[in-house]
Amino acid sequence: MAVQMPLGGFLCMHRLVRMCTSSQRHLRHRDVLVRLTKRRSEIRTFSTGLVKCKESEHEDSDSSGLSAELTSRQAPPARRSRPLSPLERISGLLPRDALSPEVMQLREQNQQEAEEDANVQESFAQSTQEQSGHPETPAGTEATPKEDESDNDHSSDATTEPSTSERLIPATLPGESLLVPGELLVAELYKKGRMEYRKMFNLQTGTRLHSSWGFIPHDDIAGQPAGQFLNTSLGAPVLIRRASLEDYVLYMKRGPAIAYPKDAARMLMMMDVTEGDRVLESGSGSGAMSLFLSRAVGSKGSVLSLEVREDHHRRATLNYKRWRTSWNLRRGEEWPDNVQFHKADLCTASSLLAGQGFHSVALDLINPHLVLTTVIPHLHPGAVCAVYLAKCVY
Questions:
Q1: Contact 270/386 with Cβ under 8 angstroms?
Q2: Domains of the chain and any CATH numbers
Q3: Where would I find the tRNA (adenine(58)-N(1))-methyltransferase catalytic subunit TRM61 C-terminal domain in this sequence (predicted)?
Q4: pLDDT tens column, 108-152
Q5: Taking a C-beta distance cutoff of 8 angstroms, is the pair 305, 339 a contact?
Q6: For position 254, what pLDDT does the model report?
């Protein structure tokens, strides 16, 4: 048999095992139990409160009713401690005499702001408790002024709603024109932040831009400012913008492999091409490097581009002319005509290079070392000859 006896905040356990006892010992143990039960003490249990030991069943019933009332009530939310700012943390490690007046002033301001925030939270909690304590307040008393406010909002919206003439296409910025037929444009479609469709096309009247998400008539695109979203026949928003030189080089018709923009930019940095330079290029290809060199040297410079194959020479010339036409429609001014395309072999083009000097040389050949003896005499002292090897694996 086990008996629990609360004694001074501790729980004492006495195990009484009796096989045969006398009456005197029974009386002695009974007196001890009576004295212990008369003492009132508090036992801390595995709960959030304190449970008192009562002397009678009446007190137990009262305590159960009181605990039910406490659980039915919702205690106000406990205030959370405010996190310390870096200034308070560092200044708290230093003695008060070592702090400057500016630091002390900042600490006082932070404490005042924290107290104001705490007061606001307490007032808000009290107001919410008061509102919850008066459920009989009718909820529809404030319906009338809300409806009036909504009516006023609608009336103000109706008065400020722009007319159809004001909702036309926004005016373009100075120096920028609307899209016209003949320009090179790029259409892009994004789904969930990812590009699902991109196409470069030439704007023409009477045609359509087709895609898996519907079509857009070119007539609807003409006259719009660049960078607008237009909906297809299926309601998909498509971004229409002008093609940059990088876009044109990547999506233009090509014969051989091109020098990609990242590689071309690296070569231009190595050669230090600036406006007014004269550059020699061997291996026109599809005309990608020729276009980048043309923009780098500007109207004061020039580029001499040589190509052995007839089809590559023709493709590079057509791509260069197509970009110049689109640029003229876009800006209203001509792209510099500073590239001279020749169908010739650099190894045997000594007569073509006679009397000319170059600030830099760009070679895009399979065997560039074969032409170095021809190129070096026409290269300025200290200039750079950059070689592009597309199939280099080391």
A1: yes
A2: 2-65 (no CATH), 184-243 (3.10.330.20), 256-387 (3.40.50.150)
A3: 257-385
A4: 777 777 777 676 666 666 665 665 554 444 444 444 444 444 444
A5: yes
A6: 92
